């Protein structure tokens, strides 16, 4: 491909890395039907991240003075929904918050990303999930996670959202929720022919790595997108490295998943389906903060799959999103736009 792009070439359909992109101002990601915006439903936990900077992390019984405080919505639900919305999709979040002031803050923040919060339910007797992070002068941190209202998501909540799930192109589900709700979501999506993308993280009620057997419904997913260590747990592999990722992915596909995308951070990802396995290298960027990498990957992957059925190209697009999320501090505030992702992909191809 020529390094210099002419003005005329921008007025036509422009292909790079097999991505068909219409650069005429239309909201498009790959190939889509004219006039139709792809729809994604995200089902995932919602938290508020409270970060306190202090000189040192206190020992038991010790009190230290904080230097700064920040708080923002976080968690797989808000972050993945925001990323899919930044990629041009019509996005609905199904999640649960508490009966506290944080609930409204979360909804207002998501509205800024054009994420529909109609199905972000309130558990009035609980508090919104919280992540308290203490960061010392050296940048080291200690976290305390309170699941709060996330533990109250029920199959009935999924039933209430059935109509929007039935209309969606993709249902993106994060497993760190009550398992019955996850199973209900998978069943609902499959009944209506909605594509299911699942991160099979351990459910809230399973705090340890013991008893890792997953419901059979998990393996009916169109795509499983665990990280390498989650995937090794599921398949009971004693080692988790890039050399075993192909075997782990093949195991997940053999159990019924149409495809398995094993994410490995800066080592890229392994895409496995019934046609074979391919390693997608990570994009080289200046790493600042890797907090948002996984959620950016998942949201962008779902957005691409809502438009085009190509898991390898979706994984490459998602890998670019994950890399870009590492170039800024924070989680939801570090998520890249569709234009930024396409620009990185274009640079990679030209280079």
Q: Can you offer a commentary on this structure?
A:
By secondary structure, the protein is α/β, with parallel strands linked by helices. It contains 11 helices and 15 strands. It has one domain: UDP-N-acetylmuramoyl-L-alanine:D-glutamate ligase, CATH 3.40.1190. The protein has helices spanning 7-10, 76-86, 101-112, 155-160, 162-167, 179-191, 228-235, 245-254, 293-305, 311-325, 338-350, and strands at 13-16, 19-22, 39-43, 47-54, 66-74, 90-98, 115-123, 129-135, 141-146, 170-174, 195-199, 223-224, 259-263, 269-273, 276-280. Strand 8 and strand 9 (141-146) form a beta hairpin. Helix 7 packs across helix 8 (245-254) and helix 9 runs antiparallel to helix 10 (311-325). The N and C termini lie close together (10 Å).
CATH class placement: Alpha Beta
Major sheet, described briefly? 9 strands, mixed
What would the average pLDDT be, to the nearest integer? 87
Number of helices: 11
From the coordinates shown, what is the CATH architecture? 3-Layer(aba) Sandwich
Strand order of the largest sheet: 7-6-3-10-11-12-13-14-15
The residue ranges in which pLDDT falls below 50 over 5 or more consecutive positions are 1-34
- Reading the helices and strands in chain order gives HEEEEEHEHEEEHHEHEEHHEEEHHH
- The CATH H-level superfamily is Ribokinase
Strand content: 25-35%
- C-alpha Rg, in Å? 20 Å
Tell me roughly what share of residues is in helical segments.
25-40%
